[in-house]
Write a structure and sequence with these properties.
By secondary structure, the chain is mainly α. 68% of the residues lie in helices and 0% in strands. The protein has a domain at 2-18 and 26-183.
């Protein structure tokens, strides 16, 4: 019972954080969104996609056993659903989390909907998910995120996940739609940062947006110039600012942020700083498959310097 009370208290604080983005729960800062519980893409920090952060020390072993042993978790009210969803997310139980939230896909609650969007996307990213299922989950995730945005456009987690999900569908819709969506994606990442400037994931993702358009291939740039009077564009300096801000907010929070700091410095021909950040990316303890991929890329880049 004590563990359950802790769990409810934690998720309640997370939801308050989303409603009042100026509040920063120091002990709850986690790491990505990355991963994230009530956000951490809504809450400030359980995990982030690929960013695993153990919450066992806070929630208690008994609560972990209680939830992890259940093949499907059931809940009767929305607070219980959100509490259990945040715990399952923090425990890395992607499939259980999806099945829990999918039962409530007709909900009008933005907090539940953005979590369902995230869970759908995370399930799509699993290696065992088929190509066909991945596509359908990607579009379902966007639908849930869009509905969440309609219900509560003032929540930074909602804006962030809408932008992420909109970006994902670009892989299926061609270069013209992808470029057009880039404007909207940028708008919502910026909105998420405005609502919560202390969320490192939003800052990192804005950095990725800038990096992507800074290195856009020439043929895509020409297409963009033909289609739009003012096509999306950015610079490596701008990308660097966002990656550094993310690191300033929460040092070492995400292996990929370390990697992109190194890659950006490489683009800016700053070998010394590139070595520094790529080495940090290579040496950072790997918790996930993504972390291992980051370590591999960082080592390859270091060997090329």
């Amino acid at each position: 019972m004590a563990a359950a009370r802790q769990l409810r208290r934690g998720a309640t604080l997370a939801r308050l954080f989303c409603q009042a983005p100026g509040i920063r729960l120091g002990w709850w800062r986690r790491v990505h969104a990355g991963r994230e519980g009530s956000e951490v893409h809504g809450k400030p920090r359980f995990f982030r996609k690929g960013l695993a952060f153990s919450v066992l020390s806070y929630m208690g072993y008994e609560a972990y056993v209680l939830i992890s042993q259940a093949s499907i978790v059931h809940a009767d009210n929305q607070n219980d659903i959100l509490d259990q969803a945040d715990y399952l997310y923090g425990s890395g139980e992607t499939e259980k989390l999806f099945h829990l939230l999918e039962q409530h896909k007709s909900s009008e609650n933005a907090q539940l909907l953005w979590r369902l969007a995230r869970a759908s996307r995370d399930l799509a990213q699993l290696s065992q998910t088929s190509v066909e299922k991945k596509k359908s989950l990607t579009y379902e995730a966007l639908a849930y995120a869009k509905k969440a945005l309609e219900k509560d456009p003032s929540c930074f987690a909602v804006n962030k996940w809408y932008a992420i999900c909109l970006s994902d569908v670009g892989d299926y819709e061609g270069i013209k739609k992808k470029i057009a969506n880039a404007f909207v994606i940028k708008e919502h990442f910026q909105k998420a940062i405005e609502l919560n400037p202390k969320d490192p994931t939003s800052l990192h993702l804005m950095g990725i947006w800038c990096y992507t358009f800074a290195e856009m291939p020439w043929y895509q740039s020409k297409i963009a110039a033909v289609l739009f009077s003012t096509p999306p564009s950015s610079t490596y300096d701008e990308a660097l600012q966002y990656f550094q801000k993310a690191e300033d907010v929460e040092p070492n929070f995400y292996s990929k942020n370390l990697l992109f700091l190194g890659k950006t410095y490489m683009k800016l021909n700053n070998r010394k700083m590139a070595l520094l950040w790529l080495t940090k990316a290579k040496e950072r303890l790997a918790h996930t498959e993504e972390d291992k991929q980051v370590q591999k890329e960082a080592l390859e880049l270091l060997n090329s310097l």
